[in-house]
From TrEMBL:
Homodimer. This is 2-aminoadipate transaminase. Belongs to the class-I pyridoxal-phosphate-dependent aminotransferase family. InterPro entries: Aminotransferase_I/II_large, Class-I_PLP-dep_aminotransf, PyrdxlP-dep_Trfase, PyrdxlP-dep_Trfase_major, PyrdxlP-dep_Trfase_small. One of its GO terms (molecular function) is transaminase activity. The keyword Transferase applies. Keywords: Aminotransferase, Pyridoxal phosphate, Transferase. Signal peptide: none annotated.
Amino acid sequence: MTDLDLRLARRAAGSGDELSAILSLVNAPGLITFSGGFPAPEIFPSSFVRDLVLEELGGSAGVALQYTPTEGLASFRTALASWIKASQGAAPDALMVTSGGIEALQLICRTLLDPGDRVLVESPTYLGAITAFSGFEAQIDVVAADEDGLDPAALAAALASGPVPKLLYVIPDFQNPTGAWLSTERRHALVELARQHGLLVVEDVAYRELGFTDEQRPSLWSLAPDVVVQVGTFSKILFPGVRLGWAAGPAALIPHLVRAKQNSDQCASGFGQWLAEAFLQDGGLDTQLPLARRTYAARWAAMDAGLSAHLPPGFSWTSPRGGFFAWVTGPVGLDTAALLPRARDLGVAFVPGAPFYAGRSTHHALRLAFSATTPDEIAEGTRRLGLLLSSSGGSL
């Protein structure tokens, strides 16, 4: 029989399986996992969902259990637009519902990218975005970033050289993987550059609502809705099981994304939209988000303490002010991917840093997610991680 690998399309042959590997560790027995950006199940609104289904589903089955319009239920989009306006200070002119944030990225790629088109990303950045852009055979170029987020001077330099980019992908709030928070000054500079160069900015706001305090900075979309398409998700702020997200952006673009969705899954979950609409109208996020912020702040404090106590000299890490992640950097020459088998033996998991770089050029970093582990688990997990990273090793 012919080797099926020989039949793979060029865009598929080089794709990685890091996301599948991360998801495979959900609830893995005997493992303290710092790998996936999973929300804390303790804050899922289980009682709300149970009561809503028991009391309301019977009369709403024709909506909740049926197909929906491709752009999403009109009533849910109205509720979502109202929530976005309350949170970000502006109501979207054009808004569609997606099956999570990653689908929104896929729709943008399918609609805008031809093979060889240039895409700019932060370095490092979300590995799912790199996979999406690579899957559509884009040329991915990186823009330097630091603890204050993407550097506008580096962006200006990237825009001044090479082909005109089709888009820039950026995570302004508590970035994945570093936890960086784009400064307000840089937000204004970024959108001004986008306007000057006719650049479409894809703003991923997955963690925007999950700062450790109530402080918020203006979304890029609220500053420049003419050049920004915002990608959001309910996976982090409601629960991932609904697989629900949105795209808000220029009115000329969103209808094309809707048409692209007609050729993917046709429509997002009607049940998820019905549930999320009820949650928004009930004010459930007003209760859930403060609890989430307190929970994740406490878990980051536990991780920071554990890293300080157990990591050997030569390692440093970021200090996020929200979100799910910290970024650990070790000595040059360290290969964090090579440590994975022993990490598993020690009962701890993390994600090596290389997949977060376009070109996989950096190997001495790793990402730690603190969102789904308790403070006690974090204390033990960082102890095991310290054993792994120490030059002298050790045994449990």
